[in-house]
Amino acid sequence: MAGLQPTSPALAPAGIALSGTAPSERTPSGIIVTTTHLERSSAKRADQEWLDAAWADPRTRVLVVHQGKALARVGGGAAELVYLPPERAPEGVRFLLGTDADGVAYFGVGAPLTAAGAGGARPAGLREAGLLLSGQEAGLLTHATALANWHATAAFCPRCGSATEIAMAGHSRRCPADGSEHFPRSDPAVIMLVTDSDDRCLLARNVEWPQRRFSVLAGFVEPGESAERAVAREVLEETGVLVSTVSYAGSQPWPMPHSLMLGFRAQATGTQIKVDADEIAEAYWYSRADLKSAVESGEVLMSPSLSISRWLIETWYGPGLPGS
Ligand SMILES: [Zn+2]
Question: pTM for the complete prediction?
């Protein structure tokens, strides 16, 4: 499918949906998430008095986001976001991201990035920095990127074309002409690990990917379609393989610009492969031994270790997949 990459920065194993997960929080069998994530403070979004006080508080931290990037200090195998105090924040679309355990408020502002280079900071996006940020900051950047992407395309009412106004601390927009309210969208996409009766795993190369890059299949959920049906349809369309059982595994926000990746395991009823050459260049069944030797020889290049595609493969392979 066009536009969906096999890589992403934040991971959601074991059926827990979240945004932004550091490698240290992740295990093949589970994940600890809540303690390191900001409280989204949804109840504060309509409380203008609280919002004004938070914006006047010098402890408040503002993350400026532009075209999927924020200022970060990157180096030494780690990254940290660079915040501004409210009085130094640029004009732009403002949205509340949440509050941390110390009660410090975090806002995002959609505006061009300035002050690049100060203290070694430079613009960085999720693809680059998602792996390196703490769990809280990866989640924060994911949330801010998703909201900024939405605001950038939601300036006008889809019903009547009037300019819309920001509402709910940047979590909705309202049309002053017809009163309609509009919310950020997430487009559901499915990504699935298919196995056969010999417990081999189906990996494919998208026509747009470089040679030797293989991953699990993925596709968008169509209107009026369940996620499970989308899994079965995409597998059949792209590889000609029929699947029987489909079970949910975990999800990953992927605001590029606004997808939510829903991960599944699926069981194939046959092994005959017939690729749809429009989207898939080649696809093969791999036993664990096949995959191990293919990765070790360089015949197969795996997805980066923090992507949900990689995680799905690891849940099948078990510990010790080469290249981890
Ligand atoms: Zn309108």
Answer: 0.85
Q: Are 48 and 127 in contact (CB under 8 A)?
A: no
Q: How far is the CA of 92 from the centre of ligand 1 (A)?
A: 22
Of the candidates 94, 96, 92, which has an alpha carbon nearest to the alpha carbon of residue 113? 92
Q: How far is the CA of 280 from the centre of ligand 1 (A)?
A: 41
For residue range 69-120, list pLDDT tens digits in order.
Answer: 999 999 888 999 999 999 999 999 999 999 999 999 999 999 999 765 567 8
pLDDT tens figures, 126-160: 888 888 898 889 999 999 999 999 999 999 999 99
Gap between the Cα atoms of 115 and 119, Å rounded: 9
Kindly give the distance from the C-alpha atom of residue 164 to the centroid of ligand 1, in angstroms, as a whole number. 7
Please, what is the Cα angle at 76 between 73 and 81, to 5 degrees? 20
Q: Set out the domains of the chain in order of their start, with CATH numbers.
A: 37-153 (3.90.79), 156-185 (no CATH), 187-317 (3.90.79.10)
CA distance 48 to 71: 28
The CA 225 to ligand 1 mean position distance, Å, reads: 28
Q: Which stretches does DSSP call E strand in the chain?
A: 26-27, 30-31, 61-66, 69-75, 78-81, 93-99, 105-110, 122-125, 165-167, 172-174, 181-182, 187-195, 201-206, 217-220, 243-254, 259-268, 280-286
Distance between start and end Cα atoms, the chain: 26
Tell me the chain's radius of gyration from C-alpha atoms: 21
DSSP β-ladder status, 259-268 and 187-195: parallel
Question: C-alpha angle with apex 143: 139 to 147, nearest 5 degrees?
Answer: 170
CA dihedral 123, 6, 259, 107 (to 10 degrees): -30
